[in-house]
Design a protein that fits this description.
The chain is α+β, with helices and mostly antiparallel strands and 734 residues long. 36% of the residues lie in helices and 25% in strands. It contains 15 helices and 25 strands. Strands 13, 14, 17, 18, 19, 20 and 21 form a 7-stranded antiparallel beta sheet that branches. Strand 6 and strand 7 form a beta hairpin. Helix 2 crosses helix 3, helix 8 packs across helix 12 and helix 10 packs across helix 11. It is elongated, with a radius of gyration of 42 Å.
């Protein structure tokens, strides 16, 4: 009985063609979805997720920030369209697997021994030959050879019929694990997407919708804003101060946050930071105690960066650390005159605590009520101080007489780090606070407790910024011989005193003018008095139209520059600028000695290099101080630090599913790329002389040079030196 495969009818071939086209279309659609997911994931990696909206406005501008926010680029992994694409990809890929797996399994089992012998001539790799041995002997030799090489074999014996002649068809197969790669790769996509859906915000969003939970943005927690302790999957943040314990973590949502209670409480015993010699941190660790009502005794653990703790299926990561309510004492320093107005000498505050009200008119006449909000305390500040003079060249000049007033344009030296070689230095503690007026407007300030060495000189850094999106601009104030602000502060307060300015101008005229020419002394006194008044901002500047000038400070070096532009011809401005600076420098030195005398300190000589350096930087600092927005500075007097840890607590059962998907993806890719599915057919037919006529063919999923060499070895093994009637094609010919 002949068991040859018959050709498919035309309708069946058309149906198979349509199925193939449908499969290709579904594959293209799945690849398109994967491409969208990959692009969205790349955007989510580049664009920081979950930042305040003001940061995105500063980065992209108001228009594009709104556009990107509308399409969910700031929370890509929890956006509706991203989750819908993942869900659709899971469904479509699962249907594709369910549809094609039975066919793949059937093809995996089949050896296709029913192929017609005439069809072997249509293969690329084919050969025929004549052997003298009978069919039974040749069959045994072929079966032994293929079994030795690991081929899976099926044999079909055929009787003579109208559709073909009698003979033996040997069908062999090797590398059928290649078919497993298709199922494994597609199953991996399903598992990874399912793990992403389950461990993402989908479970939380479904619960929030089903239970009608109300997210909140701060303040008092609403009654219906808590998720269940048995929530199967979540990623939350937990804030714990030293000595405190809590189980209330929060999950950030688009409209606010929800409370995710843990089935146990976490107590922070101590937060530990270890530093390198440069001041850079090298280790963050939190010593915690877990209080579980289901356990008999509390359990102690240490959570470190990259070393999380897993307890009851919840993974605890060291996410970051913050201030936990440190106690600080701030000392107000007044820039305009000595002595407090009506406030205390030292202000007690708690970092992150309730704002403290300052007395009305404390910062000046008409300032109104203000609130002091201490927002941060940093005990360690590691900054790059290499080439610091390049950030503000004027701030490092020791001789103010070299400053060209006509080109001066920089104020309140930038806090930006300069490029070049890094010099990481711990510059000591700093405090950050805000002064908020009755309208709710606030400026933020950052002041360092100890002076910082810049270009070999000690400078106090007083930072200010108008919005959180900006960087701090620092007023650099030189430290006196006692490493304090008092020397510069006395000079600033004396500059604002009319009587002291006049006395300093008189002293300068006496010291700089010849004793036998009183008219010269008088002229120098008048010039010094005029320069001090201009530098102090006591002489209002006017525009060409006679209106008050508002585009530049009323005092400082910029005020002097505007005065020269108004009254001095252009060809004489350079010379007048140098002369006026020398007079100002001498008058300020007399003013400095006058302020020291009133404080009971001895006068100093300008011949001392330290005094020259101090005065050079003091002039520029006094000029920059004209742009300082308030007449008082709160300096950190002392503090009691209290740390707090921010933990990321996660329950991610889908993680193991994702790991399994990754393993399947590796197996699938390896199987499809490195395992070649080969099928071999050997047709044996007896000839009239009692020998055997052999016809063989090989098919492979990929035509490579290895396939050519493998078939050549098989042909030589089966046919030996028998003359092949058809040449073996090479890969190049194919």
């Amino acid at each position: 009985m002949t068991a040859e495969a018959s050709p498919l009818p035309v309708p069946a071939r058309r149906s198979r063609r349509r199925e193939l086209l449908d499969l290709l279309a579904s594959m293209r659609f799945a690849i398109a979805l994967l491409t969208v997911i990959c692009i969205a994931s790349a955007i989510g990696t580049v664009v920081k997720q979950g930042e305040p909206m003001v940061n995105y406005v500063d980065q992209f501008g108001p228009f594009w920030a709104e556009v990107f926010g509308a399409i969910g680029l700031y929370r890509i992994y929890s956006s509706v369209w991203f989750l819908v694409i993942l869900a659709f990809l899971v469904i479509s890929t699962s249907l594709c697997i369910a549809r094609n797996t039975p066919k793949i399994v059937a093809d995996w089992r089949a050896h296709k021994e029913g192929i017609r012998e005439r069809a072997l001539q249509a293969f690329h790799h084919k050969a025929t030959g004549q052997l003298a041995e009978p069919v039974s002997t040749v069959e045994g030799q072929v079966l032994q050879t293929l079994q030795t090489q690991g081929w899976s074999i099926k044999t079909q014996r055929r009787e003579a019929s109208t559709q073909g002649e009698a003979g033996v068809m040997i069908a062999a197969r090797l590398g059928k694990a290649n078919k497993v790669g298709y199922i494994a790769a597609h199953a991996a996509i399903v598992l990874v997407c399912l793990g992403g859906l389950f461990d993402g915000d989908l479970v939380v969003k479904v619960q929030a919708w089903a239970q009608d939970l109300q997210p909140f943005k701060g303040g008092t927690e609403p009654a219906n804003s808590r998720l269940s302790e048995r929530n199967p999957a979540y990623r939350a943040q937990l804030f714990v101060s030293e000595g405190q314990r809590t189980n209330a973590s929060v999950i950030q949502m688009d409209q606010g946050m929800l409370v995710q209670p843990l089935p146990f409480e976490i107590e922070l015993k101590k937060f530990v930071v270890e530093y390198y010699e440069t001041g850079m941190p090298k280790r963050f660790a939190s010593d915690i105690v877990i209080h579980d009502p289901r356990a008999k005794d509390p359990k102690s653990y240490t959570v470190e960066v990259n070393h999380p703790v897993v307890y009851d299926g919840v993974t605890i990561f060291q996410s970051s650390f913050e201030d936990g309510g440190s106690l600080v004492k701030l000392r107000p320093l007044y820039l305009d005159r000595a002595g407090a107005r009506s406030g205390p000498e030292v202000v007690d505050a708690v970092v992150g605590g309730a704002p403290g009200a300052l007395p009305a008119d404390w910062l000046g006449q008409g300032s109104g009520p203000l609130q002091l909000e201490v927002s941060g305390l940093r005990v360690i500040n590691v900054e790059n101080l290499a080439d610091a003079q390049s950030a503000n060249p004027a701030a490092t000049s020791t001789d103010v007489r070299g400053v060209n007033l006509t080109d001066l344009s920089k104020h309140l030296g930038s806090g930006a780090k300069p490029v070049g070689n890094k010099q990481l230095v711990n510059i000591g503690p700093s405090v950050t606070y805000k002064l908020r007026d009755a309208a709710g407007q606030a400026r933020e300030y950052q002041n360092f407790m100890v002076p910082v060495e810049l270009d070999g000189h000690r400078m106090f850094l007083l930072g200010v910024r108008d919005t959180p999106a900006e960087g701090f601009r620092y007023l650099r104030v030189p430290a006196d011989e006692a490493m304090s602000l008092q020397g510069w502060l006395r000079l600033r307060q004396a500059l604002n005193n009319k009587a002291m300015r006049d006395e300093a101008a008189r002293r300068f005229g006496v010291a700089a003018g010849p004793s036998d020419r009183p008219e010269v002394r008088e002229q120098l006194t008048v010039s010094a008095q005029r320069s001090l008044d201009l530098f102090a901002g006591a002489v209002p500047l006017e525009t060409a139209a006679g209106q008050p000038a508002t585009d530049v400070p009323s005092g400082g070096l910029m005020g002097l520059s505007r005065f020269i532009e108004q009254v001095v011809p252009p060809e004489q401005r350079e010379q007048t600028s140098g002369t006026l600076i020398r007079i100002l420098n001498g008058a300020l030195f007399e003013l400095y000695n006058l302020s020291r005398t009133q404080a009971g300190l001895p006068a100093v000589s300008l011949d001392e290099p330290a005094v020259q350096a101090f005065m050079g930087r003091a002039v520029l600092s006094l000029s920059d101080a004209m742009l300082y927005p308030v007449p008082v500075v709160f300096m950190l007097d002392s503090f009691e630090q209290r740390q707090a840890s921010v933990f990321q607590v996660t329950r991610t059962p889908g993680r193991n599913v994702v790991y399994l998907g990754c393993v399947l993806l590796i197996i699938g890719v390896f199987a499809m790329l490195y395992i070649r599915d080969r099928r071999l057919w050997v047709w044996l037919q007896q000839d009239p002389q009692g020998g055997t006529r052999v016809q063989m063919a090989l098919s492979s999923t990929r035509q490579t040079l290895d396939t050519d060499r493998e078939f050549d070895r098989l042909r030589q093994t089966v046919l030996g030196e028998a003359l092949a009637q058809a040449p073996v094609p090479t890969t190049k010919e194919i």
